[in-house]
Amino acid sequence: MKGILRGIRWGLVLVGIAALGVSFLTGGQNLGWVLLGILSLSLAVNLWLLPAALRRSIGGWFRFPRPSLPSPPSIPTATMAARLQEEIETTARGIARALEGTSPQVSPPAMAIFRCPSCGQRLDPHEVRCEGCGQPADFRCPYCSRAVDPTWRRCPACGGALPASGWGR
């Protein structure tokens, strides 16, 4: 890499000197030779200064420091083996249940409820007024707070399941 760069620099220097010489010999009548000479000499100077500037700023052409990686957490082999054995047994039990046709015990999702915006009391879908504060029942989606009909199964705005759908209606 250094040899190629050195050859390019010296080639630019020679082209620049030759172009300025041609311009001098022709009496400076052709401005193109002068511009070619100045341009090639300035490129050669920049190619001499660029490696030094890069070495100073980032430490060289291709020598970038490697980031240090954090060491992995040390887990005792016995603990890891116990965890792995437990995972294998749990997975095997789940597969056996699936093959037998019994579904695993899954807890039902928590049912959303309507609440009074004034006092926070629970509102049943058939109520007209809040039992806690007496305000008119204002049924709102528990997820996006849009006004909804208490008999709807899903909120039309956000698509969330409404409490009425869990009441068997």
Mean pLDDT: 76
Percent strand equals: under 5%
Low-confidence stretches: 165-169
User: How much helix, percentage-wise, in residues?
Assistant: 40-55%
Q: What sort of overall outline do the alpha carbons produce when their principal axes are compared?
A: elongated
Major β-sheet annotation: 2 strands, antiparallel
Radius of gyration: 40 Å
Strand arrangement across the biggest beta sheet = 1-2
What does the model show?
- With 169 residues, the chain is mainly α.
- Among the domains are: 2-58; 112-169, no CATH class.
- The chain has 3 helices and 2 strands, in the order αααββ.
- The longest helix has 28 residues, at 31-58.
- The radius of gyration is 40 Å and the shape is elongated.
For this entry, give a set of tags.
2 strands, 45% helix, single chain, disordered C terminus, 169 residues, two-stranded antiparallel ribbon, mainly alpha
